[in-house]
Amino acid sequence: MGVVCALLAFTVFLFVSEIVRIDLSAILVLVIIGLLSYAPGLEKLADVPHLFDGFASNAVISIIAVMIVGAGLDKTGIMNKVAAVILKYGGTSEKRVLPIISGTVGVISSFMQNVGAAALFLPVVSRISSRSGIPLSRLLMPMGFCAILGGTMTMVGSSPLILLNDLIQSANNGLPEGQKMEQFGLFSVTPIGIVLILTGIAYFLLLGRWVLPGDEGSENTGTGQGTQEYLQRVYGLKADVFEVIVPAESPLVGQILADINHENHLYIISTFYRGKTSMVQVLTAEIAAPCRLAIIGRRWVVEEFAQKYGLTVLPALDIFVEEFAPTNAGIAEVVVTPDSKLIGKCPRELLFRKTYGMSLLAIHRGEETLSHVESETHESTQIGLEEFHAGDMLVAHTRWDNLMRIKRDPDFVVVTTDFPQDELRPQKVGWALAFFAVSLSMILFTDIRLSLCLLTGAAGMMLTRVLSVDEAYRAVGWNTVFLLACLIPLGQAVQNTGTAAWIAQQIMVILDGWPIWSLQAGVAILATAFSLVMSNVGATVLLVPLAVSIAVAAGGNPAVFALTVAISTSNSFIIPTHQVNALIMGPAGYKVMDFVRSGGVMTILFLVVSLLMLNLLY
């Protein structure tokens, strides 16, 4: 037990100090436990033949499977649509986006494993971050914490709550008839879970600016180059994309797109007419109204143009927000090859935008720049009539999936590399949703092991080629897998050597004779502490019988004490040993101290709110 306590202290030291990467810290702890098990007198520290069983554990296989399922859904473009809906209602304001994301994930995780809900929303939050400009590190932690909190909303929301009724049934065998506990119904804990989720959202809304990390350390979630920053860097002007409403009576009706662009020193890059958006509209087409236009240009130029033709400039992109999201489209640079069939022909002659799916913004030729948009360095040019030369650098706005097709065209060399190079497969959306529904139904309506339910969905998506096997391997965050798998033997050592039971008994001796409310608080704190260093299921199995005994001895309600344990084992926010925390740590670039700072306050709030709600309800 002394060796186990020393190992626990060493693990916490490695996590907090971050002398080495956190996943490497976990590997070191696993190696040390294995080697020490060969020392005389320490043979029971770990079961060496089963030392690596953590890699085949239900939790680890579930995480691998849910990452693959999430990647499959993402590959079909569903997550883009979910992100677009959230942005539509939340805009780019952190205070509006955060509660929508966190609340949604919290509700979802009340009916499925919280790590599954968090993994499915990880790509959604990544897209929202890149489109709204809100750092990923300021969105993922609230989302992850609310996924954990959501597990307290129903009796199937987390493993300890699923297990609780069985433990109560076992404990009833040792109780007299008058003190036997009733089992809890599916929604018995719902009021507690709702208040906890609302508390989590309120916490980050009110204190988020102080407890959440900024953008430092988080990975760049944007892909490709955004339109605005590229135009500013290349042309030296603050051009942007504007959405403009053209009424039916506007004098603009009937005019040709190319002529409008040239005469007004701007560029109409996309149109919306009769419910259809087109980024590849032929520039010789005429304006039909009522419609909407997406225009690139300087703000004052676009406003002057709108006033001239009786148009309305919207304050932000609405219909076109999905089209111009950095995860879907952006600025690409391509070079005309020496033997290209484009040489000697002009864009208008080639119907360039319709043929190649690229909206040509500029041509770099030697030291000269030809562009629709006028700037301090050059006048605007009607580049639609310019003949292409060998070596011309074309600057165009295009969808990334279209740019993948351009890469295979011998007439071009694509210079841009920083863009998503996996094509979306919207045609596979039916298969993806079908296997996701199969997994979810198996989880909710059968007793089949969670990992097997999720692997069924993952295998189905690979079999139907929603994503390839190699893409599935790339979708798995192996640092998360190793972090969790390598810590499982430490949790087993804490339990198997009797360390956990000994600690619990010593604390209960100290609390003997205290008021019932303080005993309940002590049980909650103990369950919280144990869930940080061992599995929440292990902590529940160990502490529920102990809590029932304390309640009976002190004259308290044993069912409430048992429920206190099952709920408090979800209070895992301080260090990234919980599966959800481990999942979000890498993508957001969090440090352990970020969890200590944000999770410390959340842990206290969880204890106070859960104990208040338990006593109000029961």
Automatic annotation (TrEMBL):
Domain RCK C-terminal: 319-412
Keyword Membrane: yes
Protein's GO biological process: potassium ion transport
Listed GO CC annotations: plasma membrane
InterPro entries (UniProt xref): Cit_transptr-like_dom, DASS-Related_Transporters, RCK_C, RCK_C_sf
Topological category with respect to the lipid bilayer: Multi-pass membrane protein
Localization of this protein: Membrane
GO molecular function: monoatomic cation transmembrane transporter activity
Listed SUPFAM superfamilies: TrkA C-terminal domain-like
Keywords: Membrane, Repeat, Transmembrane, Transmembrane helix, Transport
Stretches that traverse the bilayer: 24-42, 54-73, 97-122, 143-164, 184-206, 429-446, 476-494, 514-534, 541-567, 595-617
Domain of life assignment: Bacteria
Primary localization: membrane
PANTHER family according to UniProt: BASIC AMINO ACID ANTIPORTER YFCC-RELATED
Protein name, as recorded: Transporter, divalent anion:Na+ symporter (DASS) family
